[in-house]
Amino acid sequence: MKMTEYVPGTPCWVDLGTSDLEGAKTFYGGLFGWTAQVAEDPEAGGYTLFLLNGEQVAGAMKTMSAEQPVAWSTYVAVTDADDTMAKAQAAGAQTIMPAMDVTDVGRMGLFADPTGAVLGLWQPRSMRGAGLVNEPGTLAWDELNTRDADAAKAFYTATFGWGASTTPMDGMEYTEFQVDGRTVAGLMVMDDEHFPKETPPHWAVYFGVADCDASVAKVGELGGSVVVPTTPIPPGRFAVCQDPQGGFFSLFESSGAQPAEHAAS
Predict the structure, then answer these.
(1) For residue 164, what pLDDT is reported?
(2) CA–CA separation, 247 vs 245, rounded Å?
């Protein structure tokens, strides 16, 4: 699905903070067929765009320090990053990076929600977000993993105006965050059975694949590891993986219906 606009409140971009940018280019290029394009503007600090079929699908940058964990970050489209950051703070968020201009492409900010999960804001200018979503090699789903679902639901409703629809799924409960009745992201409660106690709350990033088993095998061939093997779920099959630098991400093979709409209108 090609995207030119994102409805405010919709996840629109993901990027990777990594300790080895060249290694990440090799790994994700081999796994998803991405090509890497380094921003020419010196102010961008070597920020790298991953392209698929000529479209921007994700980004990557070098971590700032040895203490910063390798991780994927999700960004939600907003009309005013400063205003949304103020709403997040009023609802209990901790500011990690206040709203700031990113050259002429947009304005961004980062916060940790009251449960501890980090999320980004993106106020677009020349760069709207991912140009392709919901197909192999592109962003397919964003999911909050947290131990306090009630606090998370209250926070994101106050910050983005999201609705929250919770239903049973495989003996658990699953929440779909919605914008104007359209599903845009999910929430999974972290329990001790499925998540190690030391796992912090986080936003998980899922990339679409045509064949989850084949992609899992490719992860191993490229030096990554598989944390959760291919597992069936109502919308299809997924697996949780870790890149050679330690970044966690998930693969999603759709059974036909897309898990998220990433709607433009």
Answers:
(1) 96
(2) 6
Taking Cα atoms as reference points, which of 84, 250, 258 lies closest to residue 156? 84
Tokens 């959760």 correspond to 228
DSSP β-ladder status, 118-124 and 106-112:
antiparallel
User: Where are the strands (E) in the chain, listed by range?
Assistant: 11-18, 35-38, 48-52, 55-62, 71-77, 94-102, 106-112, 118-124, 139-146, 163-169, 172-179, 182-189, 202-208, 225-233, 236-242, 248-254
Q: What is the dihedral of CA 201, 207, 208, 211, to 10 degrees?
A: -90
* Coil/strand/helix, residue 202: strand
Q: What is the dihedral of CA 15, 16, 20, 24, to 10 degrees?
A: -80
Distance from the first to the final alpha carbon of the chain: 13
Residue 15 structure tokens: 């990027």
In degrees and rounded to multiples of 5, residue 24 shows phi and psi of -65, -40
What CA–CA distance (Å, rounded) separates 228 from 7? 32
For residue 79, give the nearest of 164, 179, 169, 2 by alpha carbon: 179
- The amino acid that residue 254 corresponds to is S
Residue 95 is given by DSSP the state: E
pTM over the 0.90 mark:
yes
pLDDT digits (tens, 9 = 90+) for 9-46: 999 999 999 999 999 999 999 999 999 999 777 676 68
Q: Helix H segments across the chain? A: 21-32, 81-90, 149-160, 212-221
Question: Which amino acid, 12?
Answer: C
